[in-house]
Amino acid sequence: MTITISTKVTGALDADDKRGMISRIVEINRNRATPLPYDSGANIKSSYETILTESATAEHLTNIANASTATGLQFNGFTDNDLAQIRRALADKVQAGKSIATIVEAVKAI
Hints:
The protein is mainly alpha-helical. It has five helices and no strands.
């Protein structure tokens, strides 16, 4: 991953915002070695930004991982039949003595 994902919480907290944010901070703190503070409006915002940034980063890493799976390829228009054809073509190349590195480089060159 070469990007940085960040979030920003702005504005005045109303009672609903504060209640929801503190609830999530307390929940997250149960599994943190160093608890996030929530003793002031500024700390609540900062702690909540940390939680949202961590969540967004985790989601992005999941997206990266999923992009190269069969499901990710299907989202990009590949059918089960397409993937089966690709697997057969790869097997044919391996059985013909081509190295994995050679096959990967050939695919990258497309």
